[in-house]
Amino acid sequence: MSKEVFDPDPDPCKESQGDNLPGRRKFLGSLAAGAGVAGLAGSLSAEEKQLNSKLSADKKTRLDAAGAGKKFDWTPLKDRKGKSPKGQIGKVKLSRIIMGGNLIGGWAHARDLIYVSKLIKAYHTRIKIFETLRLGEACGVNAIIINPVMFGIMKDYARNGGGKEMQFISDCASGELLTTIKKSIDAGACSCYIQGGIADNMVKSEQFDRIAKALEIIRKAGLPAGIGGHKLATIKGCVDKGLKPDYWMKTLHHTNYWSAKPTPQHDNIWCEKPEETIAYMEKRLEPWIAFKVLAAGAIHPKVGFKYAFENGADFICVGMYDFQVVEDVNLVVDLFKGKKKPTRRRAWHG
Q: Are 92 and 46 part of one and the same domain?
């Protein structure tokens, strides 16, 4: 009998169909084989060792040329300092560092570099996405924030043996809002929120009743309901109208980087007045997931993570390539120093 081959779909966000297509093949086999080849059994977690022990040799898969002929690379785990600390929003336990889905989906935020979105889509083959998610789980990252267009890849990840810890939060930014919320709930999201750009526009056009309806639908499904915002006016507008989500998704980064200066804006700044954001959010009692904490790659994680947590963020959402996962989680582990949380003025929520 010939060996099975895992064939990464050239479109990573396209869901595989049917038992006989490559997307249904044994993902963990390639994971286990990769760990063995790298000789890193001692670096794997207890979960990973257990998974490896249950895989017989005849079930192990290989990657074809489309996967660059390589097994999963577990080498970065040798530098892992620990696993991400956790917090909680509602009934959902979340890692303090949450993966962002923009890089996987191709939304690069690359200022005026027009080729970058195509570049990161080419990099993120299906197997590379799975490898990134699996590395995240091995480092204690248990959630990713995604656009509904990526539901297929998450379903494929799970049914091909992906880890059981990874959850996804839907930004509900695909089509009519209320319909997309229902679609997200049906797809298995652990939480839903109104994406920042959408919420910015809804507040600007005073669609507060619709925002309230969105929160109601999410909560009726038993999920935490969030409101996002790039603009502080969005958060203020919702608060002034008595809207109280289970958490806020609000941008936070300093503006002391070169590309923040040119005007008019061209995809180069996401938190225009960070000091005002910090002061306002200090009084909010709801958990805060800060995003764009690195200003889409303009700020070093060592600086951006510290800035976000010390200035009030309870969680951070960060887009990560596979080769950044361990380093990023290590920075969070260092900041929390075991069970001790970073010192700041805003109380911790979640």
A: no
What pLDDT is stored for residue 71 in this prediction?
A: 63
Model pLDDT for residues 219-236, shown as the tens digit of each residue:
999 999 999 999 999 999
Same domain, 321 and 173: yes
Give the tens place of pLDDT for each residue, 238-289.
999 999 999 999 999 888 877 777 676 766 676 788 999 999 999 999 999 9
In the chain, the number of structural domains is 2
What is the pTM for the complete model shown?
0.80
Give me the domain span that covers residue 137.
86-336
Across the chain, mean pLDDT equals: 82
**Among the listed residues 58, 79, 84, 67, the one whose alpha carbon sits nearest the alpha carbon of residue 2:** 58
Q: Looking at the domain assignment, is residue 344 inside a domain?
A: no
